[in-house]
Amino acid sequence: MSNENKVIITCAITGAIHTPTMSPYLPITPDQIAAEALAAAEAGAAILHLHARDPETGKPDQTPEAFARFLPRVKQGTKAAINITTGGSPYMKVEERVRPAAQFKPEVASLNMGSINFGLYHLADRYKEFKFDWEKPHLEATRDLVFRNSFRDIEYILKTCYDNGTRFEFECYDIAHLYNLAHFAERGLVKPPFFVQSVFGLLGGIGTHPEDVMHMKRTADRLFGDQFRWSVLGAGGSQLRIAAQAAAMGGNIRVGLEDSLWAGKGRLATSNAEQVAMARKIIEGLGKQVATPDEARDILELKG
Ligand code: KMH
Ligand code: ZN
User: Fold this and answer.
1) Domains in the chain and their CATH numbers?
2) Which domain of life is it from (predicted)?
């Protein structure tokens, strides 16, 4: 059967941006991350985008040891493809960020395609008290934070992971990042089909207007023709609106508590699986089908 009407759901389970104070449902411990990942896969996620955290404080932890505490369980419990972050947290250096992907050689790793201001400082005032003392400084420091992804950094990650057969989720936060990807394609350092993850709604990146989504898609079409597979993630409250627009335009969808803590206006999502179920409703409502992990492998030419 053709994969034409299949939509890949990626679920980003915990990330490195949201903090424990923001939601009691944000998975922090290895047990929680494993359980959330398995439930998301069960609900329809074909790809699991994974970060690790310190179980005591919820602080992002990019050591391979932290990933080793949940990865075997996730791999054993589901056929969903594993996607390990190389973004880590915007505070980390690229050498630290790449270590888990280099060690575990996943089918997919994220690759951030350019530097941006990464603004979260405006969230610091929203909470009166924080559970852990790293949280407020983490948010406030983003007033002066550049999420650095220089050409050298990108090349470093590519070269470190390429021989492992890992393919990339190219995270593009702005139009220029598509051009950066085209540059690496021209140099022969990346191979199609490119899995382009367009990110909308981060302060410092492109906005969430329908025209922004159109502009990303049109530019990617012009640069890559039929050599890319398009996926979108909308940050915060834009998550499902962006997902619905992109799915209607033939795109794939990323959801998960890394990107949004919400399941409706003012209502916290109680799990990653809840957001996956909402994505499934959109896809099926459009008369399309949710891709299985093997269909996703086929579409993205993953190593399996
Ligand atoms: N937090 C997302 C907006 C990464 O892990 O490489 C982007 C992300 C980065 O997922
Ligand atoms: Zn991530």
Assistant:
1) 6-117+148-300 (3.20.20.70)
2) Bacteria
